[in-house]
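Extended Data, panel c. Modelled sequence:
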Amino acid sequence: MRRRHLRAGPMALMAAAVSAALALGSANPASAFSDNVVSPHSGGAATSWTVQRGGPTAVVTLDRADGSLDFSVRQSGRTVLEPAPVGVVTDRADLTSGLRLLHRDSRAVDEKYTTTVGKRLWRSVHMNESRFAFEGKGGARLDLVVRASDDGVAYRYVLPGGNGVTVEHEASAFRLPASSPAWLSAYAAPHEKPYDRTTAASAGSGEYGYPALFQVGAQNVLLAESDLDGRYSGSRLVHEQGTGSYEVALADKEVHSDGPLTTPWRTAVIGDLATVTESTLIDDLAPPSRIRDTSWIRPGKVAWSWLAGFGEAQRSLETQERFVDYAAAHGWEYALVDDGWKTTDWMPQLMDYAKRRGVKILLWMAWTDLDTAAKRDAQLDKVKKWGAAGLKIDFMDSDTRARYQWYDEILEATAERELLVDFHGSTIPNGIQRTWPQVMSMEAVHGAEQGDVRADNIATLPFTRNVVGSMDFTPMGFQFGQRNTSDAAELALSVIFESGLQNFAGGIEEYRARPELARFLEQVPAVWDETELLKGSAPGRSAGFARRSGARWFLGEMTAGSARTHQVPLDFLSGGKWRVDLVRDGSDGLVRESRLLTRHDTLKVPGVENGGFVAIACRAVPGRASCDEPVRRVPSGTLTVDPRQVSADPGTEVTLDGSFTIDESGPVTDVTLSAKAPEGWSVEGPGATAAELSTGQPLTADWRITVPEQPAYGWTDIPVTVTYRDPAAGAAAPKLSLRRQARVFVSPPGIDYVSDLPFSAESNGWGPVERDTSNGESAKGDGGPLRIGGRTYDKGLGTHAPSEVTVDLGGAYDRFSADAGIDEEKPDKGSVVFEVIGDGKALGTSGVMGPDDAAHAFDIDVTGVRQLTLRVTDGGDGNDSDHADWADARLHIAAGSARR
């Protein structure tokens, strides 16, 4: 969709500047307000102050007897957060007691800002803030800053002074009524544990991650944090069973600052479920955008191949071109190449291929690829030069201050180069998407990659994790895992879950088997102008949203449990008649229906167990048959060559067949299918041409390839290319092309390769022994090229320790040779020992080898040996990532013996 990019006006910039100055601990002039902003209440041994602005009331209480502070919250006449301690302990003072109030300053915080992603692009902030200045023993200072809005409250600490300070721990805690229903996720640094339903008191003793949801009567409380960066440490909640208390515990043992220190906001989003799920409080509390011009930041839908082929798919140019083709044929903006591409050399070629089809490429990297300034400069400059649109960065797995400092560095570096970012193995958003709007999404969820996500947990996430920011759940992976949701429920996740990059995880054939799903995914955007929770939604039972993009509303709902009829009041629509195009579960797949309704109607949709539906609502206009809007489609096709690989001797002939078929979005015109001979080789055959080729219509050709009498030994590529025009692009547009390779292997005389011989026995630590590729740890053929020390080998064995491969020689060979080493599949892991055994006798060993060692060259006399065993054992550090290659493993035929 077309988006507006708003820059704040002078007044908004002034307010943002004041807010930023306050966050840094600077003094600000106080403004007088009525008692609904800040009110002191003295009684007994305590003095209380309240902060409120139209919603929950924050209460700060000072115990005059011991000078301790606590924090509580009331909403609609009920206490939703019971009094709990606040304060910090530093290396210089205990600021949890002995405090006295020096003064308070109050102000209104009113801002407007826009975002690039999220529940709605235009945001208005209206909060009241009070800053309480306390003095502790010895004159130590602690400022408590409290904010209240109509959807929640927050507090943070400011430690003034210029001499530096070290925070040893916070006394901060939240206390819930003991019987409050709770949805909690056990803490782990990548934040990927599922949510369990319990109560505030009965939850087991231990650590829990943000966000944490509690139901207190008719209200809901979502605990989180905001404005967290490299100035401070991340935190989690520590709970003791039997209490309603959840204490804030830092990831670091201590946090030091050379000057004034400001902590993140300890935040509670409070209200009914609609208020909580529609809240932008976490972003509202965060600092303004660090990027002035955001016109290059474009959310979108992503063709993601990981769950449709894992590492093997990432190493295959052909597979990645197919996913680019699918994205181009359906109007998706991006394709993502995940872990595995770094062992290839074709990425610039893929970038050009995608660019010609209007698709942008995102690339996966581990955070360790970018953990120093030198690495960041080298890697980011390289991928930017190639034309990458952004990065998926993985495996941070930490909430420590040091890791947040790295986030600061990588976000600044990617912003400078105009690269989008999707974090996986990460922390939760914490307001980062307001400050750094190139952050399109973050994982931090028990998502589809886990393979075991159940409907009830899916129905919990919109009320928990996805409240605080974009969530990369990666839906649509029909071919993977043990999904218990229906097809319509899975499709509904494209609306229910908000993510600036919607990484759709399906295989291409899965989409094509579900045409109504594919059609809806063409229409659904990845960013929204307005969001409303559908009535009847409840954590763990059902989740439904209506989200507006332009003039259209998109609806998505899913339920956990038995079949039921979905009933959705349409009162979020404006007046007049609306067309509602819906897709639901039918008896034989997805079913599309269209209805004419008004805002006074209730949309009723029959459902199935763990089912759902999606819909698009648009103004009913005479002559308009659906709510679909035009989608730019680029024709996509499949080019095949047969055989793909073949062995041949010098001077012989190979027959090659080629076929091209348009799969989607045809016709195409001016089609040419041709094969090209490498230097010294010859190709006979005219190829084929067609003035026009319709969808499903094949174009075929065959050629005779002659190997020269004195060829270069090894693999030779025979490129087969098809070129064609997209009629919609116009005659002036360059032709599109698609290339596949037929590979002919010419073996040196007197040589047999071990990978071409039958194995009489084999065993392997992970997955099968691979012939002529590295070990991919799972299925046959899932490895990449054999690479050791920067060199790529045509032939060899890819294994994983512990491994043994035995071949019968029958005394026909006199020498065995190979380069053995750790494959670059896992460049920083593994240690192994290679052994060569002939007829049970050790003939040679490499000693312990690591990932940084050069290949060990074996050259062993095997005269008379009848059975040869190639063994790999662990080097002593456990068999994790022990990817061991017997590269260029060859046997030299003894004089007078025949080739086997």
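The longest helix spans residues 401-416. This feature is highlighted in the accompanying rendering.
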